[in-house]
Amino acid sequence: MTAVPLDPTPRVRPDSPSDGPRALLTVTGADRPGVTARLFGALAGDAGVPPLEVVDVEQVVVHGHLVLGVVVGALPADGPVDEEAFLAALGTLADGVEAATGVRVAVESASDRRAAAPGRAHHVTLLGRPVPPSAVAGAATAIAGVGGNIDAIRRLSDHPVTALELTVSGAEATALRTALAAVATATGADLAVEPVGLARRSKRLIVLDVDSTLVRGEVIDELAARAGRAAEVARITAAAMNGELDFAESLRARVATLAGLPVEVLDEVREHLELTPGARTLIRTLQRHGFRCGIVSGGFTQITDPLAASLGLDFAAANTLEVADGRLTGGLVGEIVDRAGKARALARFAGEHGIPLEQTVAVGDGANDLDMLNAAGLGIAFNAKPVVREQAHTALNQPYLDAVLQVLGFTRDEVLEAL
After folding, report:
1. Quick one: 22-109 is in which CATH superfamily?
2. Residue 126: partners with Cβ closer than 8 Å, 6 or more residues away
3. Is residue 314 among the annotated active site residues?
4. How far apart are CA 371 and CA 276, in angstroms?
5. How does DSSP classify residue 269?
6. Same CATH topology for 121-196 and 205-418?
7. CA 98, CA 88: separation in Å to the nearest integer?
8. What is the C-alpha separation between 380 and 377, in angstroms, rounded?
9. Half-sphere exposure of 228 toward its Cβ, with a 13 Å CA cutoff?
10. How far apart are CA 197 and CA 174, in angstroms?
11. pLDDT at position 113, please?
12. Residue ranges of the Phosphoserine phosphatase ACT domain (predicted)?
């Protein structure tokens, strides 16, 4: 076959991709420095192929094994380029690259694979400890079932949870979330959906619920145990978090059981607080990336204010227990931070720092967090009650709070660098 000669005359790239033949070059083999440079150097300087445009490139290295895909298009010189001759010339080029680098370079026609018009794409983050094959299979099947295509997959993290990010095009957001929610329920993996674009990494403020989110357990249950009313208060707390009781009403009822406790009990409970694993990593990483971080709690300022100070947080909002003569009165002071109050606190903090609500993140587990979760640009239900998981933007059921970072698109390397 006759090779098409190289025309050295510079050309201005047309506004639309060329109508000449296209080819896909797939490079596979052991990764080593210089493979990509060698391939593109050959494409740029080989006299046996016509002038080319680079239409698409994707590269990934999996445990030292390189997979590089390159789509090139022929730019016609003095007339149409013969596709058969074009592919033959690239085949000869590929043989030279293989001989020089030891990798394999396959060449095939891509002329009938013109890219479709760009549409809305989404990142699907799959998290698990571990990620079972059934979760990947289920996610892939669900994505295809709603008309989506997986364009790329990359690993975000392998510790403390494995997180894989799938870039999906062609699927409508609500249908995609619904389909993946069923996969998450069936496999036990977490699947979060976020639009592709700057909005995902433009988040600048995060608010965290405290009880059963930032810290393990419920502070009021610990206080009630010291008052001998643990079982009664635990029942009320569970009903309130499940959305079965009005939060403000349930809070007053629970606080009333604490009447007469010495104020020193607050110090004891605070000293025994246990942060959720990954909490410090989450906060430190986000702070290093310029986030404003704070807490919004239905708990008590006597607990949350010192906690916020110890973590270096920017803001905190909670209820205040009334104290008289060194003992709790069983009452509250000031405005109650209930379900609506949490959303107001988020809006207030965002406004004080000049951050639009769409650039905020909220994390919580109870029904009283729902207004806050839905007001934020991204609301994450963390080990939450069913009613909260169903209504939040996304849900995490991992035991590590820093899994939030992978939902935001941070890789494990970025986390380690920040720390």
Report:
1. ACT domain (3.30.70.260)
2. 135, 136, 139, 163, 164, 165, 166, 189, 190, 191
3. no
4. 23
5. H
6. no
7. 15
8. 10
9. 3
10. 17
11. 63
12. 121-194
Give pLDDT, residue 245.
83
Largest CA distance in the chain: 100
Which residues, listed in sequence order, are joined to residue 122 by a DSSP beta bridge? 168, 195
Domain ranges of the chain: 22-109, 121-196, 205-418
The token duo for 399 is 């035991």
pLDDT per residue as tens digits for the range 312-358: 999 999 999 999 999 999 999 999 999 999 999 999 999 999 999 99
CATH number belonging to domain 121-196: 3.30.70.260
- Which is catalytic among the residues 190, 209, 365, 369? 209
Range name among 45-54, 56-65, 246-255, 320-329 with the lowest pLDDT average: 45-54
Go through 40-65 and write b for each residue having 16 or more CB atoms within 10 A of its CB, e for each that does not: bebbeebebbbbbbebeeeeeeeeee
Q: Which amino acid appears at position 24 of this protein?
A: L
Of 141, 201, 140, whose CA–CA distance to 167 is shortest?
Answer: 140
Peptide bond into 399 cis (omega under 30): no
Active-site option among 190, 211, 369, 402:
211
Burial class, 408, CB count within 10 angstroms (exposed 0-12 / middle 13-18 / buried 19+): buried
Cβ-proximal residues to 70 (8 Å cutoff; 6+ apart), any chain = 24, 25, 27, 39, 40, 43, 54, 56, 57
**Nearest CA to 90 among 8, 157, 176, 23?**
23
DSSP lists the bridge partners of residue 150 as 168
pLDDT of residue 119: 53
Give the mean pLDDT of the chain.
89
- In terms of Cβ atoms closer than 10 Å to its own Cβ (0-12, 13-18, 19+), residue 123 is buried
Chain center to CA of 361: 11
Overall fold of domain 205-418: Rossmann fold (3.40.50)
Helical spans, DSSP H, in 272-338: 279-288, 301-311
Mean pLDDT computed over 383-409: 93
Query: Of the candidates 346, 343, 344, 405, which has an alpha carbon nearest to the alpha carbon of residue 165?
Result: 405
